[in-house]
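Milestone 3.1: sequence recovery, worked example.
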């Protein structure tokens, strides 16, 4: 056996060391408890996967990082990612800091030759040029971008069913979302890109809070075969609201509660007015949304060890960033 084959086999067998940049909610805060199969965070997912261990974390807040280290039993604690990456030999890094700090994190990672894989929160950046700089810095690394619905098996099954016309021919899509286009809307742009391909035309209707670096926007995406998706931003409400209605010639599929539920409504005759039809909800499915980060990290580790492709890569992030940039800059 060649020396390179021996080295590769040894690497596939060794325990991987992970570091987390930013110790907020998505890093570990959302999981009050860490039950198997119910991970909502990076830390809980690492804890459930054999062959990988969190060995270091960093956060500028002393209270946040110390509480995080205690909760997740991490010994090495740092103030900055520069310090952590200078002192630790890591195989995987999770970037859970706000998007405006992602470029600095990738600059530091680019100087650390031990890091093979990165699991980064979306969006890559609020700026397309900066996102492309990140992609350049990430060359040679395996980067998974957390458009987490791509690791939801129920949503993958729905994609296949739509492709096979099991719910009929899709005629129209309507989308509602809160927060900004890049923070929440980009998830839905990515989902429809995943389902229906790259949109070929954009119409912008209205921008909410245009001075923000992440405004809400009402717009339309046009796909092949005459399919249109209209996105409406819901401004100034004290809750998160993300829903998609996919209308077909047989009924309507609704992706509800940020992708946690899917409902199917069929066409029935209106009981009081028999001259027209209405929709009646027939089925409610809870999707497999609770363990998406674990599936993502398992897939990332598999690609690191054995090669292959990712369900959501840095290329997806650039594609979505380009679409969002066009939406924001459209007249």
């Amino acid at each position: 056996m060649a020396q390179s084959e021996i080295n590769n086999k040894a690497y596939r067998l060794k325990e991987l060391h992970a570091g987390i940049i930013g110790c907020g909610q998505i890093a570990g805060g959302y999981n009050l408890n860490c039950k198997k199969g119910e991970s909502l965070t990076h830390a809980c997912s690492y804890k459930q996967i054999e062959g990988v261990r969190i060995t270091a974390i960093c956060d500028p807040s002393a209270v946040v990082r110390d509480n995080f280290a205690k909760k997740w039993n991490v010994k090495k604690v740092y103030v900055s990612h520069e310090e952590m990456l200078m002192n630790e030999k890591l195989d995987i890094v999770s970037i859970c800091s706000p998007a405006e700090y992602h470029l600095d994190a990738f600059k530091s990672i680019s100087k650390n030759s031990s890091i093979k894989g990165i699991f980064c929160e979306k969006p890559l950046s609020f700026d397309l040029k900066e996102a492309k700089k990140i992609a350049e810095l990430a060359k040679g690394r395996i980067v998974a971008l957390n458009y987490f619905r791509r690791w939801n098996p129920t949503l993958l099954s729905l994609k296949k069913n739509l492709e096979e016309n099991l719910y009929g021919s899709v005629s129209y899509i309507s989308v509602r979302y809160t927060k900004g286009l890049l923070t929440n809307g980009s998830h839905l742009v990515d989902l429809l890109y995943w389902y229906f391909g790259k949109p070929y035309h954009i119409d912008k209707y209205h921008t909410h809070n245009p001075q923000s670096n992440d405004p809400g926007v009402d717009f339309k995406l046009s796909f092949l075969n005459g399919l249109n998706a209209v996105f409406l931003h819901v401004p100034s409400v004290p809750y998160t609201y993300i829903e998609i209605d996919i209308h077909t010639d047989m009924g309507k599929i609704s992706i509800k509660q940020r992708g946690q539920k899917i409902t199917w409504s069929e066409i029935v005759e209106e009981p009081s007015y028999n001259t027209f039809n209405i929709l009646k909800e027939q089925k409610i499915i809870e999707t497999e949304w609770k363990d998406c980060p674990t599936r993502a990290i398992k897939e990332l580790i598999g690609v690191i060890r054995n090669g292959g492709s990712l369900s959501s890569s840095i290329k997806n992030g650039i594609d979505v960033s380009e679409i969002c940039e066009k939406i924001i800059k459209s007249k």
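Residues 1-10 have pLDDT under 50 and may be disordered. The chain has eleven helices and 14 strands.
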